Amino acid sequence: MVQATAVPTASADTSDLKARFLAAHRWMLLARVVEEKLAALYRGGKITGGVFLGKGQEALSVATGMALRKGDVFAPLIRDQAGRLAFGETLLDCTRTYMGSRLGPMRGRDGNVHRGRPKEGLMAMISHLGAMLPVVAGTLMGRRFRGILGTVGAVSLGDGATSTGAFHEGLNLAAVEKLPLVLVVANNQYAYSTPTSRQFACEDLVDKAIGYGVAGHSVDGTNLEACLQVVGHAVDAARAGGGPQLVVASLLRLVGHGEHDDASYVDPKLRKTPLGADCLELAEARLLQEKWLSVEAVQQMQEEVQRQVEDAVATTMREPLPDPNTEDWCPLATRNLCEGTSPE
Amino acid sequence: MITYLEAIREAQAKALADDPRVYIYGQDVGQFGGAFKATKGLAKEFPGRVLDAPLSEDAIIGSAIGAAIEGMRPIIEMQFADFSTVGFNQIVNQAATLHWRTQIPCPITIRLPSGGTAGAGPFHSQSMEALYAHYPGLIVMTPATVEDAYSMLIEAVAIDDPVIFCEHKYLYYHLKAEKLPTEAVPTGKARIARQGRDATIVTYSAMLHESLACAEELASEGWEIEVIDLRSIKPLDTDTVLASVARTGRLLAVGEAWPWGGVTAEVIARVATEGFALLDAPPMRLNAKDTPVPYHPNLWGTHRPTAKTIAVALRRLLSA
Fold first, then answer.
1. Which of B99, B124, B134, B296 is catalytic?
2. 8 Å CB contact of A173 and B56
3. Cβ of B65 and A146 within 8 Å?
4. What are A65-122's pLDDT values in tens digits?
5. Which residues of B touch A143 (CB under 8 A)?
6. Residue A231 and residue A222: Cα distance in Å, rounded?
7. Is residue B166 located within the same domain as residue B231?
8. ipTM of this complex > 0.90?
9. Portion 227-246 of A in contact with B at CB < 8 A
10. What is the pTM (predicted TM-score) of this model?
11. Per CATH, the architecture of A4-337 is what?
12. Do A134 and B139 touch (CB under 8 A)?
């Protein structure tokens, strides 16, 4: 059952690769640009609460988002802006949640990366790492009960989450139930400030796949083509009935844990290794080298994407904020069982 | 005759039969029928819908939340209420916040075999209702009768919110009824289990029966004690409690759980803040002692309130 695909095989179809690569690159660029805008808004005091960026993880994230289809389930984590967009989340869902618009999916009740539309397959993460893994396993169990087959659930986690009980319980349960679940672990070398040497003692996180009886795949998280192939393969294998798939990507987070964090703890030597490469820059170099796009076309795309982001932010800025007087302060769906909702 | 435990089994059988969205998931609940046999025979009767789970409370509850998002109505059996702490995060942070954050209902029922029995010790005896009631977004039921065990469990499965169903292990075999009920008191309404005019005992779950025994004993001395069974502690039926205190002027809140915070504290806080003028004497409360639940019957019998200790408290209240 266990298989390790260390390096992706060459794509059989170059034109398919080109199309996917270009689409992925555009989502990555859009993610990078919107995140830079969010960081600027944060510094300008326009965003309350944290801002969490995915710089350096866009290739892996977009590969997950693109490998999934409409109707699949995706539980992104905090560095999945690119994957969210590729999966179908709108830019407005992002800006509205960050800026607290009443029109956003979370309506000011939750912020930043804690957003989603569960009925559309996009889970709204809670902060407790690993916790979304059992939930996605449950969505797949629920679908199986209902006779809905052929859909896949993907969960994004980081190296830190592999130390949690929820990771262990969730992956084991998914394996026991042979669920079509893909667990994508971004080993970005640090859980907040904690290096992997203080996080786990195994040689390689992908080895955990053996212990759980699931397929394991390793991938260079800075290499977009590799990510598209390996994650795509894992999603296909899960969809084809191969049971849970563990993908472990190696990369380096190129920003702080959040914008409040200068990441001064990151070993400068690590930044100079291949792990520290910027996946977006590498992707851009590749598509220029392959002559899939001209320099002018890339520039034009950047301008378009910039405009798209500015439009979303401008729209969001005009929107109403949450109003404590119209907030219903009822946590239950069964409204008549809410108690203590208004002081008398 | 049907026991409290059989009523729970029958309620689950009815839920499975009536609604294809219902399934049962928990440790040993399948062919074995559960550690207490609350799912006896159900795996056979409903193939593929009563599943054994790995020893993973977090993943069991997390998966139930995912299935609920997909439109299912899972019934989760925790083998003992005490073990639900391993799944605590999923209950209080995921299930309890889901509807408020995303407007997607989370109709899961989590059955907690609760409370003490002789010899069960610190980790198979806990009463966890106050802990869950503390968190917004959960409904907490504490049935004290065979009839309520049946009708409230059916109601729990039908409710669009996560329900913590605290079923008392001591009552499993001790409590019997002639037949299952055909009508139910609405969720959130307390029940006056015994009418009286001299003092009000507010209680729930197994302590209802200790309180009723105490009221019976005091009746032989001429006291008329009103006993209120809260049925659900969240929502808590403050109106019924206040109306009773308005009649009696005296309040004793009794719970098997630990004293700090908790249901008895909440009842007294509500009466003191909303009905202070109704009180003829300072309100009283009686709980288990503030230690882990002891193993040996000699200690356990003294650790939790009993009809005897409730009577001692009541006599003090009546003479105040």
1. B124
2. yes
3. no
4. 999 999 999 999 999 999 999 999 999 999 999 999 999 999 999 999 999 999 999 9
5. 70
6. 13
7. no
8. yes
9. none
10. 0.96
11. 3-Layer(aba) Sandwich (3.40)
12. no
